[in-house]
Amino acid sequence: MADHIVLGIDLGTQGLKVVAVRADDASIIGAAAASVPSLTPAPGWLEQQPEAWWRILCGLMRKLLREPGISPESVLGIGLSGHMHSVVPLRADGSLAHNCIVWADTRSQPQASSLAAKLQERLWNPAIAPYSLAKLLWLREHQPAVYDETAVALFPKDYLRWRMAGAIASDYSDASASLMWDFAARHWDEKLLADLNIRADLLPPVAASCAPCGALTPRAAAELGLLPGTIVAYGGGDAACAVVGAGIPDDATLLINAGTAVQVIQLIAKPTPFAAERAIRYLFELGVDARCFVIGALNSAGHSLDWWRRLLDPAQSHADLETLAAKAPGGADAPIFLPWLQGTGTPFLLDGPYGSFAQLSATADKPALTRAIYDGVAMGIRLCAEALVGEKALATKRLLFTGGLPKSPLMRQILADVFGREIRCRSFSDMSALGAAAHAAVAAGSAENAQSWLADFDYGEISQLASDTRAEPYRSAYDRYKLWAARITANADGQVSS
User: Fold this and answer.
1) Nearest residue to 220 via CA among 67, 94, 34
2) CA distance 459 to 453
């Protein structure tokens, strides 16, 4: 008899992935992935077609079912993860009133600016264009017919679950990422909605991510190749699922996901409004156990390296770039790079092109500038982490890195040297899909909670120690980095980043 498994589905901005995980020991036995197409109807706009998500999911599911040990009968439950903030407007008959407006779509910047000017003191997060509220206000202002015929606004993973189980619902984590959530009361901010003249029933009911939210309908089961009645969990936003998938037990660990962009993630005991936090973070619910977490962001990390690689020679690989960077020592007197090509992120939260080289001399060459970008990204991550938790608290945290950047041996060493201490790095990177699978295991009754289920999961974790000889040069370099960061942002216009 085949092992019982649970499925984790992660709908990211660029791709959709399904993992099959053995229910009794949380080991991954299969995976399938495909890219997700996007539309750009106008400059700054980014949309996706939810029907395309469903077609891609059906294809991936049938592909996965061809792998040994995976059969419809073996699937106990399904969990879902999806990109946050994005809005999927549905009519009362379940048809789409509009394409999904993706979180990275900036058309609602004017609405976000208006919210920031009038209501920021009442909000739990910065009023910026990615948030769902700004997108709904844009729809109401610019496409009133679409807004009026929208019966409910879902988030991406909720659309997939509606197709699976026919349930109109969401979870705490996605709801908290909308700018319409009251963290103190743990429900939609009814007063804010009333003041903005937004119908309360435009937003779905919410529950915990690991709770069962119905089962596969006969039609959905036939399209996916699974069995009717298979349990479907509520699921969560991708950032929340990533925290769950990482198995972080408490706030002693700082989770740093370092890829194209960087997210520095910290579990917290009690949420506080945005104004009280001095504009340094984004606040979300975890989706389970009434827990919350905060995120600090560096928008251009791996993106900075890729920009520089393409600028020097589009034909060269990232390994070639690393070899070039290794030829220069870096350190206190080396050039400094501020990786703010797409806004500053945390702590300044400034929109605009702030990327900069500083401390250049006539001796600066390609290796020196390349090394400056590696060092600058690492120091940007430290600056973000310090802003999020404080310099003293940072010294006590376990630093856990995931994502593509720490897979580079050079970057791994630079990160340890910049932080001046040991860091831990994981080769496994599909945290959101794994978190979704953990929700499915709990919903299906195979696990008491996600943390215990993932206790023995093999993340491929390795340690990287700081170099004794590089500690002092990097301390001096980081002091200069912070000095240049303050100078460059001193005359900024004060707009928060999108």
Assistant:
1) 94
2) 14
